[in-house]
């Protein structure tokens, strides 16, 4: 089965900032000894404009906002003096091009060492209509996808795919906007900045929806075209005799740190596309008719030949930055305890897999300069938005203080793999922890 990578590749940065949420029966993990991360949500989770359950008559609800949107789009300020619809909210639009959200960058402060921060490139509905009109493209209600709202600001947020219009790039670039890979924005995000983390979650949600729309243009049952419904939150077959409902797709994936309890070691793997010295957890898609625990055991045996017994749940988070054919993966993290120790690597899945001692893992975590990588990428995004893109290999940032290469390193603190590894390395994983599927009261949930 296909193995899933959540890490840096040699061509792009694909680390994910992950907030460690650990469920236990009696014990909640303490803060990590080598990290000083205090987050409220995982990367790509904690979306601040995620659609709430609003009544159909609420002006910010998908149905009401969509009707108001249609009225706005029909109006031409140059030829009509019609007032806007009553109780009409403010609309903001986030354009995407080939899966890349529109972004800008700014530096707050006057010091030379101030790090730039990126922002989503929200534009008003009239401006979006104007920019597209200049390029000969009409903005229609069916091209916009409802993302959510902020009740306190009376704002509704939308996303639109403008991949077919290349003339927008210089048009928006002249205003220091740039379409940036979501993976790059992910690495550039300051994980201690809750606002930046919220914008990353919004961008991830939007990309997943737009990629799903591109994949679901035709009905899988009868082959007829599909049409958007509920402000783009679902689709429906246009065939009157079919009318099949189609909902956004989520693909569940297990990712696990396999532990040799007797010898105090953890199993880490490498894929051929990893940058040198990069190691991480094993991972793979869940198959139909399979439980989470079964998927952990099967994937571990298929990839490394290791038999797994006990499986303990750690946490989960959405992953909308995979290939466009997989709009959004749901990563489900586990600790898995080995029953056998002899490694037999499937070379089609992994380049290598090895046991690593807790001491070696701790040393690697201590010397890797994760914050430096984040700042470097933030500076790169700033250069891109200013039209002066500079190439940068992020693997060069994972060095020891002397400037020498670190012997090995792992995904940064924006990745679920990092938190599985660092949690084990810095504290004991309880053997009586909650196993996947166990019922647990909400009071046992701890946000690290």
Give a description of the structure.
There is one protein chain. Among the domains are: 62-74 and 88-216, Nucleoside Triphosphate Pyrophosphohydrolase, CATH 3.90.79; 251-390 and 405-426, Alpha-Beta Complex (Nucleoside Triphosphate Pyrophosphohydrolase), CATH 3.90.79. The strands form four sheets. Strands 2, 3, 4, 5, 6, 7 and 8 form a seven-stranded mixed β-sheet that branches. Strands 12, 13, 14, 15, 16 and 17 form a six-stranded mixed β-sheet that branches. The protein is globular. Mean pLDDT is 82; it is low at 1-38, 78-82, 391-402 and 433-448. The two termini are 33 Å apart. The protein contains nine helices and 18 strands. With 448 residues, it is of the alpha+beta class. Helix 4 (182-188) crosses helix 8 and helix 7 (358-367) packs across helix 9.
What is the approximate shape?
Answer: globular
Order of helices and strands: EHEEEEHEEHEHHEEEEEEHEEEHHHE
Quaternary class:
single chain
CATH class placement of the domain at 251-390 and 405-426 = Alpha Beta
What is the number of E strands? 18
Q: Ends: how far apart?
A: 33 Å
